[in-house]
Amino acid sequence: MALLQKLLPSLVPAVLIGAGLLLVQRLLRQRKLPELPLRLSLLALLCWALLPLLNDLPVSAGYRPWLALLDELFLALAGLRVALWLLMELPAGLGWWRRPPELMLQLLMLGAGAVVTVIVVRELARVDLVGLLTTSAVLTAVLGLAAQETLKDLFAGLELQLGDDFSVGDWLELSDGARGIVETITWRDTMLLTLDGCRLVIPNSKITAELIINRSASGVISNRFEVGLDYDYPPDRALAMLESVARQNARVLGEPAAKASLKAFGDSAITYELQVWQSESGDRAHLDLRSDLLSQIWYALERDGQRVPYPVREIQRRRPQEASARLRLPSPEACATALGHSDLFGILNQNQLELVIRLSRLMSFAPREAIVLEGAEGESLYQVLRGTLEVTKQMASGERVEVCQLGPGDVFGEMTLFTGSPRSATVRAVRECLLLRVSRDCMRTLLEQEPSLLERLALIVSTREAELNNLSLEPPQEANNALVESMKRLLLAWKKP
Fold first, then answer.
1. To which CATH superfamily is domain 341-491 assigned?
2. pLDDT surpasses 60 at 219
3. pLDDT 10s digits, 255-272
4. Are 483 and 419 in contact (CB under 8 A)?
5. How far apart are CA 172 and CA 161, in angstroms?
6. Which sign, positive or negative, has the C-alpha torsion 20, 22, 24, 30?
7. pTM of the full structure
8. Which fold has domain 221-310?
9. 132 vs 174, 181, 366, 466, CA distance in Å?
């Protein structure tokens, strides 16, 4: 009971102040402002609350003034830390100025704390700490020599944090080839996270002395690599193909635009250089995008009847069908069977199906490669033979949402082929897929041989369109008639008598 009576005068205010500090901390977190430095403040409150027990401690009377000195010192240091928070961190959190570097706050706290410690010890204990250090020349010399490298790293770290050469999250490359994402910048060293997941710790003095390349300084990162293509592939077509593949990749930025250029004539290939820009930084993001593009370039070459050359001496002429054989393409009979089971081509007889197959092309696409882009013009439709595709549309807010997925047996692009309207959605491969591309010329040849198919196809297409839209703004018969007229104009060069 006597112990409680001694503690109450200091314990109650300490508890109230501590509760108030915790409440302020909670409010700061809710408003996403810099947090209050509580550890030193709570330690000072604890010392102040327990100070009345000092006289009951079994310690020598000569040590008691030093214990009381600790309480005053903790209170002074806690007040100093809160003052730094109020003057520097909180205004930065409110957006008044840029947040000061952590190292600068630590140095200010260290320097000001040393001054406060000297003053408190001199006033309460009558001990001059500055005099003790300055009177020992040998001790000063030893400390100076021992701290030489540490001080060099300290000032280099302060220079890095006060400057804007790089910051945490940037992708750096040093002159010795070391590369990584900046994880931390401390008073002694800078830590980089490498591609292998290792942490590379570099002294700050070495960072400031070396040539550094900040690959993410501008916010966009260049990704440049070489591709060797066949001498039989005309350079203008090759350059257009490379830039087209880059533009269709969702991870490649539209601005700055991707650029392909012819770099050199090699022993077995023409060397092209493709430069694209991405927002993701780091070696892993760099390699992932390059892998995607190289895979999609291979598929684009296969669709164009080309292939990546290799340094061998060939004795016989290459046959275009060799590349197709590697993909295990289905036979014409299998393609005709797949077409016959679709809603659109199910009305055709065997001869008509064989005609469509003969005039169409099998095309394969890599994962994440775009087949058609929303708003683009086109003259073909596609029948899915193998693989999975996703259909996405861009909303008014700019967000792109997935509408549905397509699989074997599905047909898309018929409205563009039959009416000439732009593509209504973007279709992209989810995994490797094989499609049959049916062109407008193919359908024109089919309808010239059998004009009676036109109205039947128009009815199927208008029905599919109504089902997709789930509504119709005009009577079904009028919509069907309008579609018939559009198909006649595009496919049969229809003229009124």
1. Jelly Rolls (2.60.120.10)
2. yes
3. 899 999 999 998 889 999
4. yes
5. 15
6. negative
7. 0.58
8. Alpha-Beta Plaits (3.30.70)
9. 44, 45, 75, 93
